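Researcher: Re-running this chain for the archive, since the previous output was lost when a drive failed. Same request as before.
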Amino acid sequence: MRFGTANENGDNFNQWAPSTVVTVPLGKRWNVHAEYFGVMSDGKVVAQSQHYVSPGGHVHLTKNLELGLRFGFGLNTQTPTFFSNVGLGYRF
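Model: Regenerated C-alpha cells:
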C-alpha cells in the first residue's frame, strides 16, 4: 500500500495505491506473476479511481541480472485500455 498527498491547481487531496502480486517460479531462472494495482484519490474535486490487472514474467540472466516483461489492462473507464513495459534489474 502506498500513500501520498498532492496538490493540483489548489486542490489538496490524498492518493492511495494498493497493489498485490502472486509470483510462481518456473524452474531456477524463470518466474511468472499476476498483479492487481490501483490508484485512488480521497478529497479530490474530481475523484480518481483507476484499477489494473497485469500479468508478466522475468528471467534471471545471471545471479545479479534480471530481465522482466509485463503487460496489463485497465479495469474501468478512467484507465488506459492496454499498457506494457520491459525492465532490467541489477543487484549490486
